[in-house]
């Protein structure tokens, strides 16, 4: 009998305390971000699709078109082509394409690059109506960033 | 003028009252739906509906249009007649109790001297609708939901009646107007706190709301008795639930919180409705908070709670009331 009443007391007390917790939450400020109108900064460790690094000194990529990234890619989504230009010893980068529909963001290409010419971008707003929209021309993205 | 004068004035009065009540019923559904979603949002520290209109205030209207425009799908193997009748059976009886509720001293469609009994009776028909809907759906989850609703309502109808009876013993009348009138000096919540608590708990259970929402438990029964309903069928159940909540809260206001009584207002005979609505919506706010605070009870806990706690307490309370009134 004693237990019966003490259960009512402790139960009732915990119910009132619980209601207090939600009441407090009701009046505390909102913590969610209203996405299309507000955006939070992306962490610098965010792994978007790969991008070519823009070397500030050369104002160009440091890629030597060795093709290591293309060979090491497990999903075979990178296409690199170089071309020999007149009067230059080394090949220059002519084509760098990424098929992002296959990419698993493993980062092997970034790790394997001998000249650290690749990095992860901060692009996260990716949405499109066709597959082809995700065949990125990485070289063109670099050209756009060049000054 | 000729046609109006040959109609009995009482008929016109009732006609107007019914129209006003049905309009109010839809309005209440919209407001409660919005409040529910907004409060749920803020309890979980998100803003709730924000897109349609200022702070999402038109969201429920847009949803209503969507539900109206949606097809009422009738699955192949259901009992077609019962399946169609159930939402109507759920919605129609909730209009009648509102006819006897005294919103203020003069704003009452009809003062029946058995008003409280009418409300209790109509409240019970809602369970019938859930059973018909659950059975008619020919779906084991709906059937389970319906069965649970019946078991739950049988269990919780008793404490509700017993707690009401404690008040009736003190006022000697079933007329809601009479009960409110008897509370001019002191609200019955002061004299009958236990009965009030029992009434509110069983009222929440009676309207099948969380933490007693076993008939429509989303996670275990996939919305229970209204799994198969879409469009207007679903929204009638939904409106009936919100109206039932309103009825439970207004009966609590009438029985325990002094109805239209409050600090005096000009035209108090009519404006008492302000106090009435303040009290009702405070109780409804509490019911919404309860829903978003407590987890759903297990079925055995639900039954134990009614039979082991609420009913003995209600009986003892009734007995003490009877003795005190007799003295």
Query: How much strand content do the residues of chain A show?
Result: 15-25%
- How many strands appear in the DSSP assignment of chain B? 0
Low-confidence parts of chain A: none
Q: Give the largest interface.
A: A-B, 16 and 14 residues
Which structural class best describes the helix and strand composition of chain A?
alpha+beta
Number of helices of chain B: 14
**Global outline of chain B:** globular
* Order of helix and strand elements from N to C terminus of chain B: HHHHHHHHHHHHHH
Portion of residues in beta strands of chain B equals under 5%
Question: Whole-Å distance between the termini of chain B?
Answer: 57 Å
Oligomer designation: heterodimer
Q: Identify the strand order in the major beta sheet of chain A.
A: 2-3-5
C-alpha Rg of chain A (nearest Å): 27 Å
Percent helix of chain A: 25-40%
Rg estimate of chain B, integer Å: 20 Å
Number of strands of chain A: 5
CATH topology of the domain at 50-145 in chain A: Alpha-Beta Plaits
Net shape of chain A: elongated
The CATH level-2 architecture of the domain at 50-145 in chain A is identified as 2-Layer Sandwich
List keywords for this structure.
heterodimer, A: alpha+beta, Alpha-Beta Plaits, three-stranded antiparallel β-sheet, two-stranded antiparallel ribbon, 30% helix, elongated, B: 327 residues, mainly alpha
């Amino acid at each position: 009998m004693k237990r019966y009443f003490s259960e009512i007391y402790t139960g009732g007390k915990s119910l009132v305390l619980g209601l207090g917790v939600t009441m407090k939450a009701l009046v505390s400020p909102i913590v969610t971000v209203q996405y299309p109108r507000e955006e939070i900064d992306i962490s610098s460790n965010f792994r978007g699709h790969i991008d070519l690094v823009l070397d500030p000194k050369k104002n160009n990529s440091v890629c030597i078109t060795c093709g290591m990234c293309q060979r090491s890619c497990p999903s075979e989504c990178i296409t690199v082509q170089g071309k020999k230009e007149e009067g230059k010893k080394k090949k220059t980068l002519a084509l760098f394409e990424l098929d992002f529909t296959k990419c698993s963001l493993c980062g092997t290409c970034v790790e394997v690059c001998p000249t650290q010419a690749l990095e992860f971008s901060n692009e996260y707003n990716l949405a499109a109506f066709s597959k082809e929209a995700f065949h990125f021309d990485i070289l063109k993205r670099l050209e756009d960033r060049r000054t | 003028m000729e046609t109006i004068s040959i109609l009995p004035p009482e008929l016109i009065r009732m006609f107007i009252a019914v129209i006003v009540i049905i309009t109010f019923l839809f309005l209440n559904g919209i407001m409660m739906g919005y409040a529910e979603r907004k409060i749920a949002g803020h309890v979980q520290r998100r803003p709730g509906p924000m897109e349609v209109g200022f702070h999402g205030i038109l969201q429920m209207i847009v949803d209503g249009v969507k539900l109206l425009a949606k097809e009422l799908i009738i699955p192949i193997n259901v009992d077609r007649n019962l399946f169609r009748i159930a939402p109507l059976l759920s919605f129609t009886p909730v209009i009648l109790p509102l006819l006897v509720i005294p919103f203020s001293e003069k704003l009452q469609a009809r003062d029946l001297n058995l008003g409280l009994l009418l409300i209790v009776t109509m409240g019970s028909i809602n369970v019938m609708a859930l059973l018909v809907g659950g059975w008619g759906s020919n779906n084991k989850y709906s059937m389970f939901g319906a069965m649970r609703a019946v078991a739950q309502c049988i269990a919780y109808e008793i404490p509700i009646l017993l707690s009401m009876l404690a008040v009736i013993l003190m006022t000697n009348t079933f007329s809601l107007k009479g009960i409110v009138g008897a509370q001019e000096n002191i609200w019955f919540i002061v004299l009958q706190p236990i009965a009030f608590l029992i009434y509110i708990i069983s009222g929440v259970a009676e309207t099948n709301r969380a933490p007693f929402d076993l008939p429509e438990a989303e996670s275990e029964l996939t919305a229970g008795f209204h799994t198969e309903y879409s469009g207007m069928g679903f929204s009638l159940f939904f409106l009936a639930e919100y109206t039932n909540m309103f009825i439970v809260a207004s009966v609590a206001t009438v029985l325990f919180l002094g109805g239209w009584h409050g600090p005096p207002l000009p035209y108090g005979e009519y404006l008492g409705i302000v106090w009435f609505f303040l009290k009702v919506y405070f109780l409804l706010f509490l019911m919404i908070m309860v829903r978003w605070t407590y987890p759903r009870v297990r079925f055995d806990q639900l039954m134990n709670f009614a039979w082991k706690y609420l009913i003995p307490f209600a009986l003892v309370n009734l007995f003490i009331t009877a003795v005190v009134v007799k003295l």
